[in-house]
Amino acid sequence: MSGLRSSQVAAAAGVNPQTLRYYERRGLLAAPRRTLGGHRLYPAETVAVLRMIKGAQRLGFTLDEVADLLDTARHQGRRRADAGLRTRTRAKLADVEARIADLREIAGTLRAALDAGCDDLVTCADSPGCPIPFAGLREGTPHVDPR
Amino acid sequence: MSGLRSSQVAAAAGVNPQTLRYYERRGLLAAPRRTLGGHRLYPAETVAVLRMIKGAQRLGFTLDEVADLLDTARHQGRRRADAGLRTRTRAKLADVEARIADLREIAGTLRAALDAGCDDLVTCADSPGCPIPFAGLREGTPHVDPR
DNA sequence: TTGCAACCGGTACCCGGGTACAGGCTTACC
DNA sequence: GGTAAGCCTGTACCCGGGTACCGGTTGCAA
After folding, report:
1. Which nucleotide in the DNA or RNA is closest to residue A5, CA to C1'?
2. Is B59 in Cβ contact with A121 (below 8 Å)?
3. CA torsion, points B75, B80, B85, B86, in degrees to nearest 10?
4. Which of A40, A55, B16, B91 is the most buried (most CB within 10 A)?
């Protein structure tokens, strides 16, 4: 046995086989070896790479960021490795923390809305006295991208 | 003056004029009155509606949900109003809270990764001993939609 | 009355992350 | 050597939330 077929890799990593080709196009997976007939033959570690990709995605990295991360890891190799990864991880952590803070504010607003027992969205959003959820954020604060 | 032109409404609400037509198509804004020539003339409260929509979006409601919310508010009117809105708000709050919990876990993982000072993504994801971020979530937990 | 900005409807495109389908070849097993 | 499953490439489509472009009117002021 000289490699895994795409469906084996896909099943082992819990992704759709089409996703493998998609990742290859996106530069996340290197183009694997082929059989004489042109079928892809993946090395076993591809499964680990896929799991890493999925993990990183769950941590909030986009596919482009993951591709970049993998690239860095590959090119700058073992010596002076680290740098990029640590820096990016720190940045991502800051990001995630900001998102949490934002969501907390949102949760607070929703809770206030429930407490206030407001009835009608439109009137609510307009009346200045009401601690309404839908108006609370009316001026400014358009900054967030609540992914 | 008998109403606001689309650009005025858009500017006042801080949205793109095209967005007004889009919302009309999506059922978020009622079709407004027109001039003889066919140009839209919005009533002043449209601005409040738009601000409400933007607020609701920021709270995590999708446009469909907002449309629904507005609809409910309009149709069941003042009497027995509430019901839908409160219920949905509660549901949304639960949602937001779940998202926060999830992000906290993610932040924890990222922090662990930094502490552990891990070097290489791929190796990391593979080694079972490492408290690595990219592997930590490898089995299961595919449940989240970290919007 | 002329000129230009703003508007109209319709359609196409953007982002990110995939998934689906069509039509043809390869591989594996009996 | 037959036949079915699996793979190949290429292209189109999905989601949500808009944005951009087109060619053709309208509105308004000088």
Report:
1. D7
2. no
3. 180
4. A55
Amino acid at B65: E
> Mean pLDDT across the stretch A48-55?
89
pTM for this model (two decimals): 0.72
Determine, for residues B45 and A126 on separate chains, whether the beta-carbon distance falls below 8 Å: yes
pLDDT tens-digit map of B60-74: 788 998 888 777 766
Q: Rounded distance, CA A22 to CA A20, Å?
A: 5
Report which DSSP code applies to B44.
Answer: T
Reduced to 3 DSSP states, what percent helix, strand and coil does chain A have, rounded to the nearest 5?
60, 5, 35
pLDDT tens for B83-116 read: 567 787 888 888 888 888 888 888 887 787 777 7
Provide, as residue numbers in chain B, all residues whose Cβ is less than 8 Å from the Cβ of A140.
Answer: none
pLDDT at A146: 33
| CB burial of residue A78 (10 Å; 0-12, 13-18, 19+) | exposed
